[in-house]
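Bumping with the actual sequence this time:
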Amino acid sequence: MTATKTEKVAKKSVKKAAKKAAKAVAERPPSYEGPKGELAPPELMSRSLPEGQIVISRINTETIRIPIIGIAPLMTNKFSNKAKQQMRDAMQNRKSPREPKNPEQEYHDAAYYLDDGERGMQAIAFKKCTVSAARYFPKNVTMVGLKQALFMEGEFSKKEGLMLVRIIGTPEMREDVVRVGNGGADLRYRPYWYEWSASIDVTYVKSMLTRDSVLSLVEAGGLGVGVGEYRPEKGGDCGTFKIDESRQVEIIR
């Protein structure tokens, strides 16, 4: 009889220990066999989080290369070194020497140059153009939101210290009459592309925008805002563009 009671007590102890072990296993988070370095989804981690701990997943982005083609001519007008020197002289109460106008040099100075000598346009100009296109869409599409969700990339130019989008095409020198201080007039010489194209690399946050939304924004900005001098945003009719349907949109990463 004593032996039987001892066996019953032992069996109860074993069952109790097994239940306790099973409960401990159940309270542990499920194993996650994902790629190396990838975080487990929140639903798999929630049971193991210490009180008050927050799990933040990595921001998911995509970079696409969008081919564009000019609808209207493009004109650039970089602030020249000569103009900067005149401003420095004015700040120090020095009179800048008056030099004869050199149209060729002024034309050259008005362009942005890549390190291989080819011309480009500031990548940030295309971002501003795309962000400004928010005005054509519903109110939930805001410029502030687009500034945080869209990023334009280009080729870094050591000459300019800027990210530039390479402009494909051959510019000509354009002469324009411009108004200056006190109602006077002067002549300006700038590069002018009658036909041009480019490819812009756009990185966007996938949780905030879809790929089609990015394409819509880029094309809306190209049609209604434009880039460069005399663009529609500034009352002109230059610098407009559209997506080039003859070339494919590429997924870079």
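The tokens above came from a reply further down the thread. The chain has seven helices and twelve strands.
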